């Protein structure tokens, strides 16, 4: 569907820290987007931007922002930290070691990845394979297209 570039990835040897906001202190990129590199059904080549913590692995449906060619976009980000209430209001998971299954290899625990792991376990139970769109157990068999057909 296009090209993929990552800045400040969790496995990078150099870590860039944001010290000042704005053009001179933040990250700035200019890209040339070639429509011919995209599949036929993609009508407008664009840049998708995913803003997330370094430790967090993104997926295709993660929150993203689309930037069309010829556009200039500025993101002003602010970190919000939430503290969830413990018992009796709920059990808060803080680490992937606290759940039965967690297939995302990233170092950060995320609720989205936990939900996808539960989904994978369910697909494995029903179909005997796992959805190849998401992270799977290392020994799992990926489902093929025949498993996606609805049963009658």
TrEMBL record:
It comes from the Eukaryota. It is a multi-pass membrane protein. Keywords: Glycoprotein, Ion channel, Ion transport, Membrane, Sodium, Sodium channel, Sodium transport, Transmembrane, Transmembrane helix, Transport. GO terms for cellular component: plasma membrane. It is found in: Membrane. One of its GO terms (molecular function) is ligand-gated sodium channel activity. The keyword Ribosomal protein does not apply. Belongs to the amiloride-sensitive sodium channel (TC 1.A.6) family. This is Uncharacterized protein. It comes from Acrobeloides nanus.
